[in-house]
Amino acid sequence: MKLRSTLLLLLSAMLVFVLAACGGGNNSSAPESTAQTSKPSAEASSPVAETSAPDDGTLDHSKPLKLTVFSTTANYAGPQTGWFAKIIKDKFNMELEIVASNLTGGDTKISALMASGDMGDIIIFGDDKNHYPNAIKGKLLLDWTQDGLLEQYGKDINATFPKAVEKAKVAFGGGASVYGIGNNVATNPSGPSEGKDMTWGPDLRWDLYQQAGAPEIKTIEDYLPVLKQMQELEPKNENGKKTYAFSLWSDWDGNYKMTLAKQFANMLGYDEIADTAVYVKADEEKYYDFLSEDSWYMKSLKLYYEANQMGLLDPDSLTQKFDDVVAKYKDGRVLFSWFPWLGAANYNTPEKTAEGKGFALVPFKDELMYSTGFNVYGGNGIIAIGAKAKEPARIMELINWMYTPEGAMISAGSGTAVPNGPEGLTWEMDSSGKPVVTDFGWKAYTDQQNTQVPAEYGGGDYYYGSNQMNFSFVVPAMVNPDNKEPYDHNLWTTTLQRNPSKLDSDWRAKMGVLTPKEYFEKNNLLAVAPQGFTGKEPLTMDKTLEQKNKQIGTVIQQISWKMVFAKNQAEYDKLNKELHDKVNGLGYAEVMEFSVKKAEELFEARKSVK
Asked: How confident is the model at residue 498 (pLDDT cuts 50, 70, 90)?
């Protein structure tokens, strides 16, 4: 942007003074660290001064820039540290402070920040259903088309992912404005977008499963007796602490369903439409009411209830958080994992896998894996810039970089898997121009929290040094145009050709494939969901229905947990009836009517990529 005249600069300085007198970006409800980094200053307070840049389009990085990142998906709060912090400090002279509603307040925290008028400098929404459009209506987000922000500093996003920009404009920007961009965007038009592993498992402790005789598992319910056998084989971990099949956590529940009661539906080809009452088939125009008798939400509650009756459910599940569960996987106290990025990522150290110990996929006969297809329009997760952000041009430059091959190679996997990390430390390019994981990299990927990063790369452990926004910018399975290999290190040719551990060798020999994804592809057990766009603004609930839906969600969540820990079948049945009676009284039929319309909207969107 061209430099302004002396008069305009004086007016800007006056605006700074006024903003400072009114409190500017400060608010009493924000965390202390947020308030400290949001304080107006002469260098970065008014929109005019913030976006100023030399005529050649370059930005001045000489002054450090501290940004508040409010993420509804983050599982960490505090300053970004470690290797990712060093990379963005060196490249952009930036520091990040993460604010996570997942950890404190949930929807209440989100609503409080929205009411304050300042959500932060960078805002990440887990989906685009409610909070994102409400933030746009509340004028809390910056329009990227203003002052040529996207055109000048988001050139790679514009050039590589034009469909994602188109969706942002049509769906949420009145056909002209861009208030954010979707996650997991790709250039590939179709096909399964997962990497070596699928998003879900189920994964079991492979070594104990083999010791139990590797019994055939036909249905999901068949896991319970198998897991009981495994628990009897290893009732305590190496430190004498009791083992369990399932260890649940509630801090991902938000204000609706019990999160961990939906995973088995994904293993049967269905997924939910967020904040609605329906689960939708990936590759067919089929849906069902998730509170119906045949729903795998309700069946999952019954499964966990039965697991608890058998002594297979961790009693800490009612009170613990996600980080507590991660620690239990790491300590060998959990035998079942819904996700490969949970069990295997935290338990499967090189030492254990060399002995044949670790988590691996153990599918059931009727499994049909829900697969998210490549999405040229971007996913429902959104990254945006706050309306009161400091120096939005520099923020736009950072976001744009995350969508480039250089940025994607560093953070690929963030949000769903272990990120690649810094070149030269965890990976490097070989003589043929192909990426290869270093010895240090394999150690870091398999034992993130116990792997210390050298000081010259940022120090600290590898896990907390990762990008703590918990947002996957580019689909990790997408091919990097610079080296013709996928971004995900698990899919590199050099990785697949690497000498497997004893665990990998045994699993591959018994399954007849190299990777879990290959197993599902080879056996035609994938249900791929086309990721399309209707070309219209999405349907949204009106305020009255939205409020009813939140009340219903709270009831579902609270009673679901009570059902799982019911003392007997009679109490379980009583709670089940109470659940249905209460939600029906609150207007569940209206929510269901809207949910069906959302399913029909989804079916229409899928036709755009068929």
From this structure: confident
How do residues 111-137 score in pLDDT, each as one tens digit?
A: 999 999 999 999 999 988 889 999 999
pTM of the model: 0.69
Mapping DSSP onto H, E and C, the string for 239-307 reads CCCECECECCCCCCCCCCCCHHHCHHHHCECEEECCCCCEEEECCCCCEEECCCCCCHHHHHHHHHHHH
Which stretches of 28-97 are DSSP H helices?
Answer: 32-37, 47-50, 82-92
510 has a pLDDT exceeding 70: yes
Residue of 1, 45, 47, 43 whose CA lies nearest to 26 = 45
For the residues 453-465, what does the mean pLDDT come to?
Answer: 96
Nearest CA-CA partner of 66 in 49, 52, 80:
80
- The DSSP H or E segment spanning 528 is strand 526-529
Is the pLDDT at 580 greater than 90, yes or no? yes
Average pLDDT, whole number, for the chain? 88
- In order, the DSSP letters of 133-173 are HHHHHTT-B--TTGGGHHHHH-HHHHHH-HHHHHHIIIIIS
Q: What is the DSSP letter of 341?
A: T
pLDDT of residue 56: 52
Those residues with Cβ within 8 angstroms of residue 319's Cβ, 6 or more apart along the chain or in another chain? none
Q: What angle do CA 339, 268, 561 make, to 5 degrees?
A: 65
Report the DSSP beta bridge partners of residue 423.
427
Q: How confident is the model at residue 538 (pLDDT cuts 50, 70, 90)?
A: confident
Average pLDDT over residues 439-446: 92
Structure tokens at 137: 């209506």
Query: Could you give the CA distance from residue 168 to residue 150 in angstroms, rounded to a whole number?
Result: 12
- Angstrom distance (rounded) from CA 284 to CA 509: 34
Q: Which amino acid is at 56?
A: D
Beta bridge partners, 125, equal 382
pLDDT at 1: 39
Tokens linked to 38: 């949001």
| Joined tokens for residue 74 | 């983050």
* Domains, the chain: 65-188+377-496 (3.40.190.10), 203-371+505-608 (3.40.190.10)
Kind of pairing, strands 526-529 and 270-272?
Answer: unpaired
Which comes out higher in pLDDT, residue 597 or 27? Answer: 597
Q: Is the dihedral of CA 459, 464, 470, 475 positive or negative?
A: positive
- Helix count (H) and strand count (E) of the chain? 26, 16
Give the whole-angstrom CA distance, residue 50 versus residue 286: 49
Q: Nearest 5 degrees, angle CA 93-CA 382-CA 48?
A: 50
Which residue in 480, 494, 508 sits closest to 439, CA to CA? 494
Assign 3-class secondary structure to 77-91: CEECCHHHHHHHHHH
Give 352's contacts (C-beta < 8 A, 6+ positions apart).
358, 503
Bridge partners for 386 per DSSP: 141
